[in-house]
Amino acid sequence: MEIILNDKPYPVKDSTTLAAFVESLELKQEGIAIAIDYNVVPKDRWAKTVLTDKMELVLIHAVSGG
Fold first, then answer.
1. How far is Cα 21 from Cα 50, in angstroms, rounded to an integer?
2. pLDDT at residue 65 in the model
């Protein structure tokens, strides 16, 4: 199956959780947020959120400055 992250397709296995997907990208969980259907998923739900085919995700990086 395939999901879309920031307009780029990524192949993932069936039953992959959001937490497992983020880990596969080798991203640190600090300073990022992920939205599904424009709704931010709380980090405590990442391990319970199962990705589905053609699901669209948006990854947001926090940036400091002013």
1. 10
2. 65
